[in-house]
Design a protein that fits this description.
Radius of gyration: 20 Å
Structural class: alpha+beta
Strand content: 25-35%
Low-confidence stretches: 5-10, 12-17, 26-42
Helix content: 25-40%
Strand order of the largest sheet: 1-2-6-5-4-3
Number of strands: 6
Oligomer: single chain
Largest sheet: 6 strands, antiparallel
Number of helices: 4
Order of helices and strands: HHEEHEEEEH
Length: 135
Protein backbone atom coordinates (compact mmCIF):
# COMPACT_ATOMS: atom_id res chain seq x y z
CA UNK A 1 0.00 0.00 0.00
CA UNK A 2 1.21 3.50 -0.85
CA UNK A 3 1.96 5.95 1.98
CA UNK A 4 -0.22 9.03 2.11
CA UNK A 5 1.49 12.38 2.47
CA UNK A 6 -0.16 14.57 5.03
CA UNK A 7 0.21 18.12 6.20
CA UNK A 8 1.76 16.72 9.40
CA UNK A 9 4.85 15.65 7.42
CA UNK A 10 5.42 19.20 6.09
CA UNK A 11 7.24 20.51 9.21
CA UNK A 12 9.69 17.61 8.99
CA UNK A 13 10.43 18.39 5.34
CA UNK A 14 10.95 22.07 6.17
CA UNK A 15 13.30 21.08 9.00
CA UNK A 16 15.34 19.08 6.49
CA UNK A 17 15.69 22.12 4.20
CA UNK A 18 16.64 24.25 7.22
CA UNK A 19 19.33 21.78 8.25
CA UNK A 20 20.81 21.74 4.75
CA UNK A 21 20.92 25.55 4.68
CA UNK A 22 22.46 25.66 8.15
CA UNK A 23 25.48 23.58 7.16
CA UNK A 24 26.18 25.35 3.87
CA UNK A 25 28.62 28.27 3.92
CA UNK A 26 27.12 31.78 3.62
CA UNK A 27 26.99 32.39 -0.12
CA UNK A 28 26.07 28.81 -0.98
CA UNK A 29 23.19 28.85 1.50
CA UNK A 30 21.97 32.15 0.10
CA UNK A 31 22.16 30.81 -3.44
CA UNK A 32 20.20 27.68 -2.47
CA UNK A 33 17.65 29.85 -0.69
CA UNK A 34 17.47 32.09 -3.77
CA UNK A 35 18.67 35.19 -1.98
CA UNK A 36 21.63 36.10 -4.24
CA UNK A 37 24.90 37.73 -3.20
CA UNK A 38 26.27 41.24 -2.72
CA UNK A 39 27.24 43.22 -5.80
CA UNK A 40 30.57 44.31 -4.30
CA UNK A 41 32.26 40.96 -4.31
CA UNK A 42 32.16 37.85 -6.39
CA UNK A 43 33.54 35.35 -3.89
CA UNK A 44 34.60 35.01 -0.27
CA UNK A 45 35.79 32.30 2.08
CA UNK A 46 37.37 31.73 5.48
CA UNK A 47 39.83 28.89 5.96
CA UNK A 48 42.92 28.21 8.04
CA UNK A 49 42.55 31.54 9.86
CA UNK A 50 42.54 33.62 6.70
CA UNK A 51 39.68 35.49 5.09
CA UNK A 52 39.65 35.92 1.34
CA UNK A 53 37.33 38.07 -0.72
CA UNK A 54 37.26 39.10 -4.34
CA UNK A 55 35.99 42.63 -4.86
CA UNK A 56 34.53 43.90 -8.12
CA UNK A 57 37.03 46.77 -8.20
CA UNK A 58 40.40 47.41 -9.86
CA UNK A 59 43.64 46.87 -7.93
CA UNK A 60 44.42 50.57 -7.35
CA UNK A 61 40.99 51.34 -5.96
CA UNK A 62 41.07 48.28 -3.69
CA UNK A 63 44.62 49.05 -2.47
CA UNK A 64 43.65 52.62 -1.54
CA UNK A 65 40.40 51.48 0.07
CA UNK A 66 42.32 48.93 2.15
CA UNK A 67 44.80 51.53 3.46
CA UNK A 68 41.96 53.93 4.31
CA UNK A 69 39.99 51.14 6.01
CA UNK A 70 42.96 50.25 8.23
CA UNK A 71 43.34 53.92 9.16
CA UNK A 72 39.59 54.18 9.92
CA UNK A 73 39.94 51.22 12.33
CA UNK A 74 43.07 52.69 14.00
CA UNK A 75 45.16 49.77 12.77
CA UNK A 76 48.77 50.91 12.46
CA UNK A 77 50.41 50.15 9.11
CA UNK A 78 53.97 49.01 9.80
CA UNK A 79 55.04 48.29 6.22
CA UNK A 80 53.41 48.38 2.79
CA UNK A 81 54.88 47.12 -0.46
CA UNK A 82 52.57 48.10 -3.31
CA UNK A 83 54.49 46.11 -5.94
CA UNK A 84 53.80 42.88 -4.01
CA UNK A 85 50.41 44.00 -2.71
CA UNK A 86 51.44 43.35 0.89
CA UNK A 87 50.48 45.34 3.97
CA UNK A 88 51.82 44.47 7.43
CA UNK A 89 49.98 46.18 10.26
CA UNK A 90 49.43 45.94 13.99
CA UNK A 91 46.40 46.18 16.27
CA UNK A 92 46.55 48.22 19.47
CA UNK A 93 46.81 44.96 21.49
CA UNK A 94 49.93 43.95 19.53
CA UNK A 95 48.34 41.34 17.24
CA UNK A 96 49.68 41.40 13.72
CA UNK A 97 47.55 41.98 10.64
CA UNK A 98 48.69 40.73 7.24
CA UNK A 99 46.75 41.93 4.20
CA UNK A 100 47.51 40.84 0.64
CA UNK A 101 45.87 42.70 -2.25
CA UNK A 102 46.30 41.13 -5.69
CA UNK A 103 44.59 41.64 -9.03
CA UNK A 104 42.70 38.67 -10.41
CA UNK A 105 41.58 40.54 -13.54
CA UNK A 106 41.57 44.22 -14.45
CA UNK A 107 38.26 44.69 -12.65
CA UNK A 108 38.43 42.06 -9.87
CA UNK A 109 40.85 42.18 -6.95
CA UNK A 110 41.51 39.47 -4.36
CA UNK A 111 42.10 40.54 -0.75
CA UNK A 112 43.40 38.14 1.91
CA UNK A 113 43.39 39.08 5.60
CA UNK A 114 45.00 37.24 8.51
CA UNK A 115 44.87 38.63 12.03
CA UNK A 116 47.30 37.11 14.51
CA UNK A 117 49.03 33.77 14.10
CA UNK A 118 45.91 31.61 13.99
CA UNK A 119 43.43 34.11 12.61
CA UNK A 120 40.63 36.17 14.12
CA UNK A 121 37.53 35.90 11.98
CA UNK A 122 35.64 38.69 13.74
CA UNK A 123 38.44 41.25 13.35
CA UNK A 124 39.05 40.17 9.76
CA UNK A 125 35.37 40.72 8.98
CA UNK A 126 35.53 44.19 10.54
CA UNK A 127 38.41 45.02 8.21
CA UNK A 128 36.49 43.58 5.23
CA UNK A 129 33.45 45.71 6.03
CA UNK A 130 35.61 48.81 6.31
CA UNK A 131 37.22 48.06 2.92
CA UNK A 132 33.83 47.51 1.32
CA UNK A 133 32.61 50.88 2.61
CA UNK A 134 35.62 52.56 0.98
CA UNK A 135 35.31 50.80 -2.40
Amino acid sequence: MRERKTIASLPFRMMGVGLVLAVLPGCAAMAVAGLGTSAHYAYNKYSDGELERQYDAPMDRTWNATLKALKDLDIRVMEKVRSRGEIDAQLSDGDTVKVTVAPKTEEITRVKIRVGTFGDRHMSELIWNAIEKRI
